[in-house]
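This part of the workshop introduces the protein records we will be handling. Each record describes a single protein and holds just a pair of labelled lines. Instead of coordinates, the fold is spelled out as a row of discrete tokens. To make this concrete, we reproduce a full record directly below:
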Amino acid sequence: MITAGGPSIYKNGKGCGACYQVRCVGNAACSDRPVTVVVTDQCPGGPCLAEAAHFDLSGTAFGALAKPGQADNLRNVGVLKVLYNRVPCNWRGTDIAFKVDAGSNPNYLAFLVEDEAGDGDLSAVELQQSGGGWAQMQQSWGAVWKYNSGSTLQAPISIRLTSSSGRKLVASNVIPAGWQPGHTYRSIVNF
């Protein structure tokens, strides 16, 4: 099932999280072509407990499932049945970015992993401070990962990502000295 009006996960083909192709069925306004959406978080309760899958799509993504000229009609339905399939994310020509959370400070770093290609799931994220070893980060929610060092972080900071398929990727020195909360730092790598 999908519902309209949720967080923006269509994102015009850019984003963070797992990619799915979805196609609505059972409504005259539904198009026959699938739309790729980026799922940024799992639904821990509510309607998700009663359904095998539940996608909460933005109005833009919801409308993209419609036949030409039928977007508003489809959005007004509210809940639709869908067929879906997990697909690899493909952000050709775009490297992974790390958007530092506004609540980060010299002792605490949290960031959103953006534009990750491949399977879209991260099983582990680690950071390496200047002159140090790798330290495990904790998943905060969705594609946001956090690390509380207990002391001042030593930048530049490298990030090592492990995908759910076991592939590893290192973004060397991606968080620079003088990093700022709210800023996005783009790597030169992607899966």
